[in-house]
Amino acid sequence: MENIFNFSNELQGKIALVTGGTKGTGKAIADRLVEAGATVIITARNPPAEEKPDQVFISADLSTVEGTRKVIDKTLQKFGKLDILINNLGGSETKGGGFTVLTDEDWIQSLQTNLLSPVRLDRGFLPQMIERKTGVIIHIASIQAKLPLYDSTLPYAAAKAGLLNYSKSLSNEVAPKGIRVLTVSPGWIMTSASEKMMERIAESSNSTKEQAAKSVMDALGGIPSGRPAQPEEVAELVGFLVSPRAGYLTGTEFVIDGGTIPTI
Question: What residues have CB less than 8 Å from 251, skipping those under 6 apart?
Answer without folding.
Answer: 168, 171, 172, 175, 181, 182
